[in-house]
Amino acid sequence: MTPRDRFEELLELWLDDALSPTERAEWDSLLAADDSLRIEAEQEARLVALLRQAGERRAPENLLSTALAKAREPIKVTELSRAERRRGNPWAFGSVAAMLFVGLIVWALYQDGVDAPELTPTHTTGRVQTTTSDSTASDTVAPAETKQAPPESPAPVHSPGDVWRFREDTPPSAAPESRARELAEAPPVEPDTVPQDADLHVFFSTAFEETAPSPALENRAALERLVQNRRARVVVDTRWRATAEAIAQQRLALAETQQGDGLRYVVLEIPQITSDVQALALLETQTDESEDSRVVLAYRDATAQPQFLARAAKATIAIESFDDFLSHMEQQGAQFLHYTADRELALKPYWKDETTALLDARALTPTPEPTPESERPKGFEGYVVFFLEDPETAARLLMELPTLAGDGMRNLDPSLAELIAQPQGARLVIPYRIAD
Amino acid sequence: MSDLTWREDPEAERLLVERAQQGDQLALEELLSMHQDRVFRTALGIVGGNEEAAQEVAQEVLISAFRHIQQFRGASKFSTWLYRMTVNFAKNRAVAHGRRSARFVSLDAPAPGDEEHAPRDHRAEQVSPREAAHGAELMELLHENLGKLSEEYRTVLVLRFIEDVSYEDIATLLSIPVGTVKSRINRARRELRLLMKDHLTPGEETS
């Protein structure tokens, strides 16, 4: 092996940062002995650094949304493309000819049956065959009728009772139902392969242990029961009222929130989830003339730069109701704690176990400095508080929080109150505004 | 900001894939959202810095992934599946646009270090290194010179250094041996260095 070959070999390792100590010494001596090699190595390193720098490039803001919009469009097959396909596909002509042939036979048999005034037993047999053929032909050539048949009833929800019987309380949108049906019909997920759901299972199975139908369905069933439970306990006339017995036991008062016609704006606030993000400040609305107001989440860092705007703006996960929103959050490991109109309460680190030295609560959820009235973001009329065991997940959810539109606000699930005492974790505090 | 960017989490990705294949659109969107940057970057590198073309390719990839998520069998990483689609779509696009590797300069001809035979960078002749060696301009130059490489050289460089894909994964997604990947990367890197050598002198900034 020539020194040049050895240089090439070591260069590759060096660039991959994979030199052993011995190779490192050899590499250094090679470079020390030959200036041209040293320059070449430096250039290679700079080139690689430059390439890696190109790896910081982000996709355009609207790339995914545009792609998704296109992906959801039905695939259009134009007459031209059909003709092209037929031209290149001799089977197309064959199948047309076959269909014509079958059609002719059916027609001939039918005519035979209709035109024959007196049927012999043989004809009767033929008649029977004709009927059969006719029926078959009808199935073949009139698929539209089949399509127009009423759809099958949805599969029964495999949890006790009718999970969705409180649907009349919710907005008329069909999406939550279909979502719920998907949820109910989804195959069960094994707890050991789905840690978040597993956690959910562990928690909820405590509250609903007696009615758990089977271990395999516990995760899904637990979610269903959660929704059912939540709906069962919140009646229409107190829909906007916090029913917070369990919270009250923690000596926490929940303020009432004015009734409104729907949840319109949701923004998310994580106090000092990192050192540079102080708080959210920006709430933007996008109005779609054909639908309700839509919301784009945006954030400003301590320097007031809306640096997360693009990232947040792409988070246009379509969620039609607050229940769906809750389900979405819970599926990602966030536990709904409570909802309050009291900002101070929402941000209060009450969940911290004072005796636990493991966590400096202030590092995660410092009590915020009083914000001058003039600087307060407008539209904050209430807060939804979630709990997450993992602050990193909270940070991720911050970036992924879906936009939310529509009404269907729900309040507290008292069975979740014990989570408040959790000594670790982070909270997502989500202020919202109810439109007047 | 780095604290808030997506972290690699194979378990979360696996879960998202599973849910996406069960028809969970939110999971699928999230999955694609996680990977859109790398799809775009890869496309950008392979199409030689043409942003419009890269967006077209990236959109095709995302649309295709959205529609055909069921076809992902999990034999490789989800990102590898996407990379493979990106490479294929970018290649197809190049073919469709009749792009040839006319500017490809074989490295078989010049001996290593034989710089007088190195391909000339005409841009470098017009713009002084110091002028070009800053930020976006240098990046533009990089993409321009990447565009001068053959498509197969571009592809391995982009995957290895821009996307930080392992040699093994590159071998898998390009269906070539690992040894070929390494030698191809070496040649590609050497060729690109020769194209950019005026901008890689020790005094130049790369950031």
Write the layout of secondary structure elements.
The complex is a heterodimer of chains A (436) and B (207).
Chain A (H helix, E strand, L loop, with lengths): L2 H13 L5 H13 L1 H20 L8 H10 L6 H9 L2 H26 L5 H21 L1 H6 L26 H11 L9 H13 L10 H16 L11 H5 L13 E4 L12 E9 L5 E8 L8 H5 L8 H10 L3 E6 L2 H5 L13 H4 L17 E7 L2 H10 L25 E9 L2
Antiparallel strand pairs in A: 1-6, 2-3, 4-5, 5-6
Chain B lengths: L9 H12 L3 H22 L4 H17 L10 H19 L25 H5 L2 H4 L2 H12 L4 H12 L4 H8 L3 H19 L11
Helix pairs in contact in B: 1-2, 2-3, 2-4, 2-8, 3-4, 4-9, 8-10, 9-10
Fill in the keyword field for this structure.
heterodimer; A: 436 residues; alpha+beta; four-stranded antiparallel β-sheet; two-stranded antiparallel ribbon; 17 helices; 6 strands; 10% strand; disordered C terminus; B: 207 residues; mainly alpha; 10 helices
Description:
The complex is a heterodimer of chains A (436) and B (207). Chain A is an alpha+beta fold and 436 residues long. Chain A is built from 17 helices and six strands. Chain A has helices at 3-15, 21-33, 35-54, 63-72, 79-87, 90-115, 121-141, 143-148, 175-185, 195-207, 218-233, 245-249, 309-313, 322-331, 343-347, 361-364, 391-400; strands at 263-266, 279-287, 293-300, 335-340, 382-388, 426-434. In chain A, strands 1-6-5-4 form a four-stranded antiparallel β-sheet. Chain A has a two-stranded antiparallel ribbon with strand order 2-3. In chain A, helix 1 packs across helix 2, helix 6 (90-115) runs antiparallel to helix 7 (121-141) and helix 10 crosses helix 11 (218-233). The longest helix of chain A has 26 residues, at 90-115. By secondary structure, chain B is mostly helical. Chain B is 63% helix and 0% strand. In chain B, helix 2 packs across helix 4. Chain B is globular, with a radius of gyration of 18 Å. The relative contact order of chain B is 0.12. At the A-B interface, helix 1, helix 3, helix 4 and helix 17 of A face helix 1, helix 2, helix 3, helix 7 and helix 8 of B.
